[in-house]
């Protein structure tokens, strides 16, 4: 017998990726009596890890911190490939009975809060609607439908194939072909070694260098812990170790940028054994962590260059030509395939356009409270991970904060809450990185303030204490729903 899905839910989670599945776990374990659904625009679990299918796709954080604290990572590699991460997310959803709450091919395009009804009305892409008491966006901040593609002169004249990593063709054959990858971020440094063994040659073309650090592909300490201890305990200890290391290294880079530059340069030189090449191609003008640091497991990028299978060119594109790309220097890079690893586009809340009582809310004028809730939007939260550490560390804290807010509603008899500053604040960008993909669109997002709890820190230890232990009622304005009139 078919069942009808409810048209009203206590909580709606948007997105069935890494964050959304984690949010569902927290909600179902801490508030088992609440009804909820995960609305997923695509037809599969996994989010980013299901969408991106380019060669070599992998995490740029260790899986003991990118993975869930409640689901031990059991695979050998600490820096994992995309399919392994996707399987891990799906397995976690199945083990915790989350799958049945997911509504696939259900995209939220607009959300309107009704003050009178104290609920959200969600407009879906198929024209349907759904209402909920609390809306939690776990769709990340990337545009899944479009990548960033700058205009390249002469592109139509190129005789080969142009590919964007976000939409990698399943049947792309690059065996024995000359490949030029435009870019130097995490996607580019992943693609180069992954394609180098099969392609005739791979060239990474960058306008300017990026800080790149070789890291071990396996975590020997974690392996030792897993061989001696129960899986759950070993996972927690490895997670704590890696949190301490990444937090400490980030603080070291920010406080002592000169020493950090020296350290990273020495690491690159040790592997490449070519100081001149390191100075030209792997020594940025900006300081470490002004942009996100790229990690290369087992120095695979540098090894591909050393083996002559790949090369790095630092120059600017002048124009595409039939045989490849002509650079500003006049040199022509021959290519059969050009991969435009030129970055991503940001999109707030998965493209949801929020409004209150029919009036659109200008997100650029709002502030983020405790890294999750937003001024002007009652009973709404967004999940945004760290930029200097594993996404899931911050994401899990946000989900646990949402559970605390729901408890706050129950304890005080509120139907809704909205964060409100107690005084005027200076607005600062939500994501404080100089990366191009951030700078292009961050003005469309809510900002952070100049003090706690409006300041979005990049420190898990402090955030964990304040999120899980701090008072959350001091700057949340609550509303109690009017009792319905008694009909006599």
Automatic annotation (TrEMBL):
User: At the top level of its lineage, which domain of life is listed?
Assistant: Bacteria
Which keywords appear in this protein's UniProt record, sorted alphabetically?
Answer: FAD, Flavoprotein, Monooxygenase, NADP, Oxidoreductase
Q: Which GO terms describe its molecular function?
A: flavin adenine dinucleotide binding; N,N-dimethylaniline monooxygenase activity; NADP binding
The membrane-spanning stretches of this chain are none
InterPro entries for this protein: FAD-binding_MO (IPR051820), FAD/NAD-bd_sf (IPR036188), Flavin_mOase-like (IPR020946)
A Pfam family matched in the record: FMO-like
UniProt cross-references to SUPFAM superfamilies, sorted A to Z: FAD/NAD(P)-binding domain (SSF51905)
The coenzyme or cofactor needed here is: FAD
The UniProt family comment states: Belongs to the FAD-binding monooxygenase family.
**Protein name per its UniProtKB record:** Cation diffusion facilitator CzcD-associated flavoprotein CzcO
The protein's organism comes out as Saccharothrix variisporea
């Amino acid at each position: 017998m078919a069942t009808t899905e409810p048209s009203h839910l206590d909580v709606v989670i948007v997105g069935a990726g890494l964050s959304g599945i984690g949010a569902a776990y927290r909600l179902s374990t801490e508030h088992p009596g609440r009804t909820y659904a995960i609305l997923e625009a695509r037809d599969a679990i996994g989010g980013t890890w299901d969408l991106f299918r380019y060669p070599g796709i992998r995490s740029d954080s260790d899986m003991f911190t990118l993975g869930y604290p409640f689901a031990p990572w059991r695979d050998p590699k600490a820096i994992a490939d995309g399919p392994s991460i996707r399987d891990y997310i799906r397995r976690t959803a199945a083990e915790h009975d989350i799958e049945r709450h997911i509504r696939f091919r259900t995209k939220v395009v607009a959300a309107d809060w009704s003050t009178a009804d104290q609920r959200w009305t969600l407009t879906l892409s198929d024209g349907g609607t759904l209402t909920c008491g609390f809306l939690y966006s776990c769709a990340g901040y990337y545009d899944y439908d479009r990548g960033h593609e700058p205009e390249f002169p002469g592109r139509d004249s190129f005789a080969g194939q142009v590919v964007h990593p976000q939409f990698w063709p399943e049947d792309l054959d690059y065996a024995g072909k000359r490949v030029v990858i435009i870019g130097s971020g995490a996607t580019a440094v992943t693609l180069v070694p992954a394609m180098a063994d099969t392609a005739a040659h791979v060239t990474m073309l960058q306008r300017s260098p990026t800080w790149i650090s070789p890291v071990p592909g396996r975590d020997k300490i974690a392996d030792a812990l897993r061989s001696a201890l129960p899986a759950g305990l070993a996972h927690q200890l490895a997670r704590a170790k890696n949190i301490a290391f990444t937090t400490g290294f980030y603080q070291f880079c920010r406080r002592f940028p000169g020493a950090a530059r020296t350290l990273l340069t020495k690491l690159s030189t040790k592997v490449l054994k070519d100081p001149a090449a390191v100075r030209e191609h792997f020594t940025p003008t900006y300081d470490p962590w002004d942009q996100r640091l790229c990690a290369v497991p087992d120095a695979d990028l540098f090894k591909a260059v050393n083996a002559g299978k790949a090369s790095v060119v630092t120059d600017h594109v002048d124009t595409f030509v039939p045989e490849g790309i002509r650079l500003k220097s006049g040199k022509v890079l021959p290519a059969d395939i050009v991969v435009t690893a030129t970055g991503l586009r940001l999109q707030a809340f998965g493209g949801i356009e929020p409004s209150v009582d029919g009036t659109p809310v200008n997100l650029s004028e709002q502030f983020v409270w405790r890294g999750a809730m937003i001024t002007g939007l009652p009973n709404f939260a967004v999940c945004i991970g760290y930029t200097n550490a594993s996404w899931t560390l911050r994401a899990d804290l946000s989900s646990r904060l949402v559970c605390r807010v729901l408890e706050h509603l129950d304890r005080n008899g509120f139907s809704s809450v909205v964060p409100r500053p107690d005084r005027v604040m200076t607005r600062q960008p939500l994501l404080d990185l100089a990366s191009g993909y951030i700078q292009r669109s961050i003005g469309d997002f809510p900002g952070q303030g100049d003090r706690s709890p409006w300041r979005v820190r990049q420190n898990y230890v402090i955030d964990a204490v304040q999120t899980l232990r701090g008072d959350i009622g001091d700057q949340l304005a609550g509303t109690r729903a009017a009792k319905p009139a008694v009909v006599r």
